[in-house]
Amino acid sequence: MKFDINAITRKNVRELKPYNTARDDFKGVATVYLDANENPYPTEFNRYPDPKQNALKSEISKLKQLDPLQIILGNGSDEIIDLLIRAFCEPGIDNVIIPQPTYGMYSVCAAINNVETKLPELSIDFDLDIQNINAYLNDKSKIIFLCSPNNPSGNLLEQDKIKSLLQSFSGIVVLDEAYIDFADSDGWITSLIDYPNLFLLQTFSKAWGLAGLRLGVGYGSKEIIQILNKIKPPYNINSITQNIALTEVKKDNPITEWVDTLKNERRILEVLLNQFSFVEKVYPSQTNFLLVKMINAKACYQHLLTKGIIVRDRSSVIHCDNCLRITVGTPNENKELINTLYDFQNINL
Ligand SMILES: *Cc1c(COP(=O)(O)O)cnc(C)c1O
C-alpha cells in the first residue's frame, strides 16, 4: 500500500508554523549573545541547549549509519511515543493498534491524547497474529505499535510478519527496539530505506545504562522526522543530557562489555531458574530480563520482597498468568536472587 505522509498527518499539524527559537534565527557563532534573554553570567547552564541537538545527532548518525535528518531525540522514548500520537492521530476520531501484551506507555499516551486503542492479542507464544490484527484495523487506524524484542515477554517478533504489516498498512508501524542491543539480531535500522512507514524507537535507558538521563531516539524517514520536529518542545533535551550522551557515544565500544556480561548472566539465570520445582517455564529472552512462569507467582513475589529483592509481578497481564518479570542484575545480585529462591523452594517443600 502506498504510504502518504500528508494523508496521515493531522491537519492542524500539517498547517502548523512551528515556534522559532532565537537559535533557529541565528545559527552562526558570535561573541556576544543578546538574543535569548539569557542571564549573561556563566553558571555552566546559563545558555539554552541546542534545540536541534546537532552534535549528538551527528555522532549517533555515525554509529547507526543513518542521515542525521532521520533522527529525533526525545526526553526518553516516552516523549517520542507521545509526539507520534499527537502528530498523526486526531483525538476522538483516529485509533492506534497495540498488540497485547506489551509495554504500557503506548496505551497510556494514546489515552492521554483521547485516541482510541485497539488491543488485539499476540499469540500465546507472544508473536504477531496478522489475521487478528487485520480484524481490528480500519480506515481510522494510524499507528501500529510493535515492540521487538517485546516487553514483558522478551522475544523478537517474527520478521516476515512485521514485513507483511509494513507492506499492507497505510499508516505508520512503530517498532520499539528498546532491548535490541541484547538481541541476536541487528534489528530493523537497515530496513528504514525500504519502508517509508517504518519508525524505530531506541533508548539510552537500557543497554547504555543512562535511564536517569532521559534520552530516547527515534529513527524514520526524513518526512516523518520533519513532522515530529515541528511539534516537539524546542529545548526538549537539556544540556547535561546532550553533553553526557555525546561523551558516551564517542567512546570505543561503549556498551559491549556490559551487554556481553548481562547476556551471559541471562543464560546462567535461565538454567538455574528452570531447576526450581515451582518454576513452570522460563521464556526464551532476547533482552536483559526473563519472564518466568511459576506455580505461585504472588507467593514468590512476596518472599523476594521480604528479602529486599524487587521483581515485577506481571501475573495480571494477558498470557502472563503466574508470571514474574525478572531483570538480569550483576553476578552478585543474581546469586542473591537464586539463593533467596532456594529458600522459597525449601519453605514450600
Ligand atoms: C524501558 C523501555 C523503554 C524506555 O523508555 P525511556 O522513556 O526511553 O526510558 C521504551 N520501550 C520499552 C518497551 C521499554 O521497555
Quick structural summary:
This protein has 349 residues and is of the alpha/beta class. The chain has helices spanning 5-8, 11-14, 22-25, 54-64, 77-88, 105-112, 130-136, 159-168, 222-231, 239-250, 256-274, 297-306, 331-347, and strands at residues 71-74, 95-97, 116-118, 141-147, 172-176, 198-203, 216-219, 279-282, 289-294, 312-313, 323-327.
Structural summary, described in words:
- This protein has helices at residues 5-8, 11-14, 22-25, 54-64, 77-88, 105-112, 130-136, 159-168, 222-231, 239-250, 256-274, 297-306, 331-347, and strands spanning 71-74, 95-97, 116-118, 141-147, 172-176, 198-203, 216-219, 279-282, 289-294, 312-313, 323-327.
- The chain has 349 residues and is α/β, with parallel strands linked by helices.
- It folds into two domains: 5-20 and 50-250, Aspartate Aminotransferase, domain 2 (3-Layer(aba) Sandwich); 256-347, Aspartate Aminotransferase, domain 1 (Alpha-Beta Complex).
- The strands form two sheets. It has a seven-stranded mixed sheet with strand order 1-7-6-5-4-2-3, with helices on both faces.
- Helix 4 (54-64) packs parallel to helix 10 and helix 5 (77-88) crosses helix 6 (105-112).
- The longest helix is centred in the last third of the chain and has 19 residues, at 256-274.
- The chain starts with a helix and ends with a helix.
- Residues 76-78, 103, 147, 151, 176, 178, 203, 205-206, 211, 216 line the site of pyridoxal-5'-phosphate.
